[in-house]
Amino acid sequence: MKKSYLLILVSMFTLSMSQAQHKQVPMFVGTYTSEQGSKGIYSYLFNLETGDAEVQSEVESTSPSFLARTDKFLVAVNEVNDGSQSLSSFNLQDDILTFENKLSTKGGSPCHVMLGDKGRYAVVSNYSGGSLALYSMDENGHINAMDDYKEFTGSSVNSKRQEKPHIHSAFLGPDKAVYVSDLGTDKIYVFNVVQEAGKYQFMEKAVIAAPAGGGPRHLAFHPNGKTMYSLQELTGDVVVYRAKKGNWEQVQVISMNDAGFQGENGAADIKVSADGKYLYSSNRVDANTISTFAIQKDGQLVLKQVLPVEGKGPRNFNFSPNGKFVLVGNQLTDEIVVFNRDAKSGELSDSGKRIPVSKPVCIIF
C-alpha cells in the first residue's frame, strides 16, 4: 500500500513538472550592442500562461539585430557598416547557443535574415548596401558559402530616404518564392531560389510596384495564401495585394494611424494572426503605436485599434506561440512590453509585464 501511494506521488510530481515545463518556451532576442548596453543575443524562458520571462543566457555578438532559427541552429545578422558586417550562426542544443561560424555579408548594414528549404539556405538583406546575399547551410547550421549575391539599382521620390536601393527584408511566400522589399525603390522583387551545379541561385520571377514614396519594409501573407500585406515605412500605410491569375493585384491602401495623426512615420513590423482574422503593425518615430486590423473575407482591412506601445521605437514584435500575448521590442526605451491579446476581438491591452533589455530589435520563439 505504501509503495503504491509513493508511486502515485512520484507520478503526480512528474506530471506537475512536465506541465510547468510545457508552460515555458525558449525565446531569443536580437539587439544593437554597445559598451554600456547589450552584449549580443539573449535567451529567455517565456511563460505562456503568465507572460513572465526569465533570462537564461547572454551570447556575445556584434549588433545581432535580426534572428531566424530552426530546431537545431540560430542565425543572426551583425548589422554594422564598417567592413565587418556578417551572418553569424549558432548551434542550438538544449536551448543553449554555441557559436558555429560566420561569413561576410559583403553589403553594408545587414538588417534581416530568413531561412528557406528547411534551413538549407539563408537570405540576408543588406540595407545600406542595397543588396541580397544567399548562403548554403548544412543541417546543423554551418554556413557553407555565399552561393549568390545580387546588387540592385534605382531610386524613388523621397530624395532623403530613397536615393538608392535599400533592401530591407526577404520573406518566403505561399508559392515558396522569396519576396524582397526594397524601401529605396518602392518595389517588391520576387525570386525563386533554385539549385544549379550544387549551388543555390536567385532566379527573378516578378517585380511588384508599391505606391511611390511608401518605402516597403516588411510584409506578411494571409494563411490562405491569397492575400499579401506590405508595410510602408515612410507613410505608415499597409498595401493589400490579392493573388489574381498568377499575379499580385493592389486592392487597398490603408493607414495604420488614427485619423488625426500628424507626425512622422517609421512603420517597422507587420504580422497576421495564425487564425487569419487579424493583422498587426508597429509604428515608430512620432507614433510609437501598434495597430490592430480586422481582416475581411476578401482580405481587405478595417482598422480596429491604435494602441500606445508604452515606450519608444517599437521594432519587431511577435506573438507568443499560444497567441495569448504580443511582445513588442521598444528599442529606444530598452525593454520589451508584453501585451495581452484577446483572441476573439483581436484587441491588445497592457499586461503590465516588462522584460528589460538594452536596444531590443528582434524577438523570436
TrEMBL record:
Listed GO CC annotations: cytosol
SUPFAM superfamilies: C-terminal (heme d1) domain of cytochrome cd1-nitrite reductase (SSF51004)
One Pfam family recorded for the sequence: Lactonase
Keywords for this protein: Carbohydrate metabolism, Glucose metabolism, Signal
BP terms from Gene Ontology: glucose metabolic process
Signal peptide residues on this chain, from the entry's feature table: 1-22
GO molecular function per UniProt: 6-phosphogluconolactonase activity
InterPro entries linked: Cycloisomerase_2, Haem_d1_sf, Lactonase_7-beta_prop, WD40/YVTN_repeat-like_dom_sf
PANTHER family: 6-PHOSPHOGLUCONOLACTONASE, 6-PHOSPHOGLUCONOLACTONASE-RELATED
Family per record: Belongs to the cycloisomerase 2 family.
The protein, known as: Beta-propeller fold lactonase family protein
Species of the source: Sphingobacterium humi
